[in-house]
Request: fold
Amino acid sequence: MKYFSALLIAVLMLVLFISLQEIPLSQNLMPVSSHYVDSGVKDTGATNLVNAVLFDYRGFDTLGEVTVIFAAAAAFKMLFSHRRIFFFRYGMSPIVKTGMAVYSPFIFIFGIYVIMAGHISPGGGFQGGVILASLSILLTLVYGLWYKVRQTVLSPAISSNIESMGGMVFIFIGLAGIFSGNYFLSNLGAGFFAGIPGSMFSGGSIPLLNIASGLKVTAGLSIIFYSIAGGE
Amino acid sequence: MKPTLIFVLLIMSLGLYCVLVKDNLIKKALGINIMEGAVFLFLISYGYRQGGSPPILTGSETNIVDPVPQALTLTAIVIGAATTALMLGIIIKIYKIYGTLDTNEIRRLRG
Reply:
């Protein structure tokens, strides 16, 4: 079995190696990419082209991506709905708790910054959402699960609501495009504020979509961790 | 051909070997993650241009890296995280029911 698998993999990789030689290697960009690079700032108002592609040109794709996170979180809720094991009931030592109290505001502000400045600098809703989710996970590990259950902001019910709200906001921003007479998830055509490219308030609907997906990723990953760590 | 293609195929074959040969379910999940890493490296390396600057326009760039593979890789990373979490969750459930992570054992226990 081992040798057969190794042989199979070797043949497969040889086929891949030969077929991937067909990809053209030139310094020029592909037609689609060069259109994005040339007119991306004019079309979307965002200077971060990755976010322009993600939330404007391929916004529908990103809606599907957000739906996948929702599906994963929902499946986790279903799989671990009856667990009552509390791994981290009382949290860690006072030294770690004090250190975490010092660090957590900075992590929170950094996460918010990465989400809010996604259209003008590296980052965006998904990256910032992961940072905020890591803060939520750290708080659970350090202060214990009882702390998280007692807190109103961090409690699982609120996380579920935030996740649903993120998805709803995303879809409503998309629907605004239809009601203004354009296509679904249209950006500047739907009358969103364009601003000066490169400034904080620019990019039309891209910052709003960043915030929506950031909320969704934060809440979704928190729900996934919380479901594993111990039920409600 | 780019030199990274060799590394991509190497990482890919390591991950595939892990998925096919290892009996432990967690090792299989790790193998799928390694294969995902190979795909990310492939997309990013083929979107790269020699001496290119990141796709964040401040007005003076002339040689910019292709933004589309980066956006697709971002999508793939998020989907990969979601599927990995789901895989591990199902593995936890399997361990609770069967008491083992060995695929041969699991197959023997319930026809």
